[in-house]
Amino acid sequence: MAQSILEWTAIVFLLIGTGLSVIGMVGFVRLPDVYTRLHATGKVSVFGLVSLLIAAILLTPLALGKGLLLIFFVLLAAPAVTHAIASAAYKAGLTANTKRDDLKGKVQRASGKGV
Description:
The protein is an all-alpha fold. It has a domain at about 1-80. Helices cover about 70% and strands about 0% of the residues. The chain has helices at about 1-30, 35-60, 65-90. Helix 1 (about 1-30) packs antiparallel against helix 2 and helix 2 runs antiparallel to helix 3 (about 65-90). The radius of gyration is 19 Å and the shape is elongated. About 15% of the residues are buried. The mean pLDDT is about 85.
């Protein structure tokens, strides 16, 4: 009984993780600029990956330590990575589809026009 509950819980996490990863990739393909694409891949896909890792932990109990360590490092590194990519895109001169620019005059850009 307990084994089947673990398996069904793992299946639910597999479906959630797969769904979130698909949503993140659709957002990556469909969204207009680098910043909105980063939002889709940085948020949704990370939670999809965490859900898939939870499913792996539930299905293979021997991977508990490795799975928790991977989840820790993904949640630790993902915000820093997306911030670094967005900062590099801004400094390269890529513009967003918005009128507000809080960094204008504070960060030197490579060019004033977007690519």
